[in-house]
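Blinded run. Sample ID left blank on purpose so nobody reads anything into the name before looking at the predicted structure. Input follows.
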Amino acid sequence: MSNLQKGIIAILCSSFGFACMALCIKAQGDLPLAQKALFRNIPTLIVSSYIVYKNKEPFFGKRSNLAYLVARSIFGCVGILCAFYGVTHLLLGDASLINRMEPFITILFAAIFLNESLKRHHYIAYILIFIGLLLIIRPTFASKDYTAYFIAMLGSFCAACAYFILRLLGSRNLKDKQAGETQNTLIFFFSFFSSIVFLILTIPSFQTMNSQQMMWAALSGLGALLGQYGITLGYRYAAPKEVSIFSYSHLFFSMSLGVIFFGEFPDLLNCIGYALVISSALLIYIKRERVVR
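Blinded prediction complete.
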């Protein structure tokens, strides 16, 4: 199996995990955002610390990579809280569109800073996927809360910065195994750092949770665990321009979960949008495979 195929599978698994996480976050009700984020982090923190300890890997990485690790964690924390804020204060379609802008920003960063050139089929694919997204979520931008729009866009930008830093660390690892970090160290460091941040924010606003909320909180953590490991592996195995488009499978997983749990069936425009997204992903994959062969 090629690195590209491994990257695609990892991104698909990540998208499914994050879709499950979003379902669980929504089901928890009106708990404080930092509290939801904290419980979301706990399973990942526990599992990653055990794996790092078992494999005798460094918990906090190499000193030469500390700036990368801290920067990635800061952007990741801000991105999570901003995304939660956007979903809470905007129309769901508007917030979803803004959050899905992250892969476009990641690819732009890679093209500028890593000299990863974009071909014509990349531009075609991303035009199609943007049109598909508009058909799927049909944002109205009817809200007058422009502060919430700004915060949601800031979250998307921060998420792109965090993923781009992962790519930088992956490049260092490919050039020199001794200079890079393992995915286990990357995940533990972010989980530990963000858990401390969310704990500090949760303490003054903590709300008691009932048994149902505790169940959804635990499940959201398991979804985040799958999503976190998947996204970390995906961007280490392949370039953002080749695999980030597959993160839009999150929309399909979310649609399926919506049908199952909320009876939300897609209409014709939704289906056309799904077809455009799938076509875009297939276009990039097929072109890439022809180049490799």
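Unblinding after everyone has recorded impressions. Residues 3-292 form one domain.
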